[in-house]
Write a structure and sequence with these properties.
Layout: E1 6-7, H1 26-41, E2 46-48, E3 58-61, E4 71-82, E5 86-90, E6 100-104, E7 107-113, E8 119-125, H2 126-139, H3 150-164, E9 171-172
Antiparallel strand pairs: 1-9, 2-3, 3-4, 4-7, 5-6, 7-8
The structure holds nickel (II) ion.
């Protein structure tokens, strides 16, 4: 498994609609494994393939619970969203240090393929439902900033520009934390 470079806001791949995976083969499984490895190294709870520069409909979610196990989302599709939208703070590994309050459905039923290419359907709720919606947005070229009011988005983009001052390019190396760190 490899920790891959992260693509940051400004990288065009984050704005493309990702391609459906025609067949879950070893290359796709390697991508899934690398997404988990990169997400964990970056201390995230979800990661989508476009964030490592791969425009394919693949994402992973691990919000840290033991059951159900971490989700592998290949060609995921939300088939039903229910409940009144709830607002909570979100961030994104592609927009470090920027956070905003986003409305999301508290419960979604989704269909996807797993790491073996087997179709499954699952209902996720709460924080996990939020993470799934955030990752599926990535596959459609949508970032959480797009779901904020124009005023809030403008403020956060100004902050982002300030943070990025003096840096060039849109790639970030992920440096895993030393093992055993609390
Ligand atoms: Ni994100």
């Amino acid at each position: 498994m490899t920790v891959r470079q992260l693509h940051l806001l400004g990288s065009p791949v984050l704005r493309k609609r990702a391609q459906a995976v025609p067949q879950v083969d070893d290359a796709v499984r390697r991508l899934v494994d690398d997404l988990f490895e990169t997400m964990r190294a970056a201390k995230g709870v979800g990661l989508a393939a476009p964030q490592v520069g791969v425009s394919q409909r693949v994402a992973v979610v691990d919000v840290g619970e033991e059951f159900p196990p971490p989700l592998v989302l290949i060609n995921p599709r939300i088939v039903e969203a229910s409940g009144e939208p709830e607002v909570a703070e979100e961030g994104c590994l592609s927009i470090p240090e920027i956070f905003g309050e986003v409305d999301r459905s508290p419960s979604v039923a989704l269909e996807a393929l797993d790491r073996e290419g087997k179709p499954y359907r699952v209902v996720v709720t709460g924080f996990k439902a939020r993470a799934v919606q955030h990752e599926i947005d990535h596959l459609d070229g949508i970032l959480f900033l797009d779901r904020l009011s124009a005023v809030k988005r403008g403020l956060l983009l100004a902050k982002w520009k300030k943070l990025r001052k003096g840096t060039t390019g849109y790639l970030k190396e992920v440096t895993p934390q030393p093992a055993g760190e609390l």
